Amino acid sequence: MKERVALITGGMGGLGETISTKMASAGYKVAVTYSPSNKSFVQWLSKMEQQGFKFHAYPCDVTDFDSCKKCVASVVSDLGPVDILVNNAGITKDMTFQKMAKADWVSGI
Prior knowledge:
Elements: E1 5-9, H1 14-25, E2 29-34, H2 41-50, E3 55-59, H3 65-79, E4 84-87, H4 102-107
Parallel strand pairs: 1-2, 1-4, 2-3
């Protein structure tokens, strides 16, 4: 049986990291995304490998359609078709939910 592929956006921190490790423990090949400005992804991958996890990491600006399309194409080329997608990456302005106007919610940035 082929190994299934899971793609987790924002999979390198907080809840995303927990999802990534659970998926890997369940036997999935796990691809995680990171912001193109993230300079510490190599250290994170090394830390995870020391804990017994082998992840594949891809830069992806989730606010940009073309960046997402390129990311998915790279994952499919490297690992095969994506069986599970977890849209975990989040983008918010630095404010509480109650202070957000509808325009803040719609724009996402």
